[in-house]
Structure formats: C-alpha cells, structure tokens
C-alpha cells in the first residue's frame, strides 16, 4: 500500500517545481517589460526662456531613453538571459541567474540617476538641445523612473533566485527527451501488444503440434480458422 505513495509525491514535487519556474519566468519578463515601457515615457520637461527675438518660451521633453540610454539594452539583455535560463541547467543556469541579478541592479541604478533634475539639465544643456540657453525650471515626472527602478529590482531578485535555486528547475529539453524502454521490455500502446500476441499464437501452434493436432487444419486461404 505504501509503494504508490512515492511516485505520487514525486509527481507533485515536479509539478510544483515547474509552476515555480513558470512564475519565475513571468516575473523576469514582467520586470524587463516594465523597464522597456518606462524608458519610452517622458521623465522630465526642461523649460527655457524665449530666445532673442522670440516672444514665447519653450520646453524640451526628455524620455527615459534620453536620460538613461542604457535602460533598453539592459532590459533586452535580461529578456535574452531569461530564455537562456530555460535552455541551460546546472552551473551555467546559476551563472546566467547571477548575470540577470547584475543587469537588474544596473538598471535600477541607472533609473535613479536618470530621475535627478541635474541629469535633465545636463542632457538639455551644453551639448544638448538647449545649447546656449538658460534653463528656468525642470518638471520631473517620478512615476516612470520609479517603475523602471522597480523593474530593475524585480530582475535583481529573480536573478538571485535563479542563482540559488535554478539547479532544481527542469530544463526545457527534458520534455522532448526520448523515454527509455519499459522494465518489461515492451513499448507502450499497441506496439507493445503486437509482439506479445504473436508470441502467444506461436506458442499455441507448438503446443498443438506436441499434441498431435494439425494447427492448419480448417484454415482458410487467409490463414484464419474456417
């Protein structure tokens, strides 16, 4: 009665491990997507007085990509690393997890630096769009920098989890590996039944011969009993 319990527990453990892996993948993809989304939104607007001869002042809108250009490449690298975690196992999976943690931390730091007003003045000032003009105000929009930083922190946590527990997760190739032969030597399904049936019929023919009975007597042209 206790023998079937072990396979059931093993199957439940494997199911829980796969669900944990799927949850991890969702967290990694969500963190990278959040960074990509935030980097394309406006983080700050720099206002400047009117130029000589002009009557109106103007503003320059700066996106996360303008203030922190590394955000999008870091997010794309994290997405590729998430796929690499699914395709690897063992030590390599732990290495990729550590890489994701480092990339996520770098994205969080870059988001914090890009959210500072001084960074907006620097980008729009000398060498930028507002060359030679005095800035009067910087209007920051903190929601998107916070979202980018949150995505980076989520990737950092996901990478740390993969580095610590990734060795227990199943690899993507395990589902497509060919199963070995069954203990009884027969394949599954009908292919395993046909050899067994032919063996039984051959044995019955020999038994009939031993008893002095002609096994072909009464058979039709197709080999069946008439």
From TrEMBL:
Does Transmembrane helix show up as a keyword for this record? Answer: yes
Listed transmembrane segments: 21-44, 70-88, 95-115, 143-164
User: Does the record carry rRNA processing as a key word?
Assistant: no
Alphabetically ordered keywords of this record: Membrane, Transmembrane, Transmembrane helix
Instruction: Return the PROSITE patterns for the record.
Output: TAT (PS51318)
Listed InterPro entries? TAT_signal, Trp_biosyn_TM_oprn/chp, Trp_synth-assoc_CHP
Compositional bias annotation for Basic and acidic residues: 190-205
Question: Where are the annotated segments for Disordered?
Answer: 172-226
Would you tell me the protein name for this molecule?
TIGR02234 family membrane protein
What species is given as this protein's source?
Sphaerisporangium rhizosphaerae
């Amino acid at each position: 009665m206790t023998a079937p319990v072990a396979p059931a527990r093993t199957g439940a453990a494997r199911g829980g491990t796969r669900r944990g892996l799927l949850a991890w993948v969702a967290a990694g993809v969500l963190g990278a997507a959040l960074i990509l989304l935030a980097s394309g939104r406006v983080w700050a607007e720099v206002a400047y007085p009117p130029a000589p001869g002009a009557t109106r002042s103007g503003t320059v809108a700066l996106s996360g990509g303008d203030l922190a250009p590394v955000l999008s490449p870091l997010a794309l690298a994290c997405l590729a690393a998430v796929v690499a975690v699914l395709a690897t196992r063992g030590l390599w999976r732990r290495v990729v997890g550590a890489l994701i943690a480092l990339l996520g931390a770098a994205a969080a730091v870059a988001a914090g630096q890009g959210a500072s007003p001084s960074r907006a003045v620097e980008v729009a000032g000398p060498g930028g769009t507002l060359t030679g003009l005095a800035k009067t105000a910087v209007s920051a929009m903190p929601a998107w920098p916070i979202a980018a930083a949150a995505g980076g922190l989520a990737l950092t946590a996901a990478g740390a989890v993969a580095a610590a527990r990734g060795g227990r997760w199943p690899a993507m190739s395990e589902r497509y590996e060919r199963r070995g032969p069954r203990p009884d030597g027969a394949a599954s399904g009908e292919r395993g039944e046909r050899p067994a049936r032919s063996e039984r019929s051959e044995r019955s023919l020999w038994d009939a011969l031993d008893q002095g009975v002609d096994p072909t007597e009464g058979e039709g042209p197709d080999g069946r009993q008439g």
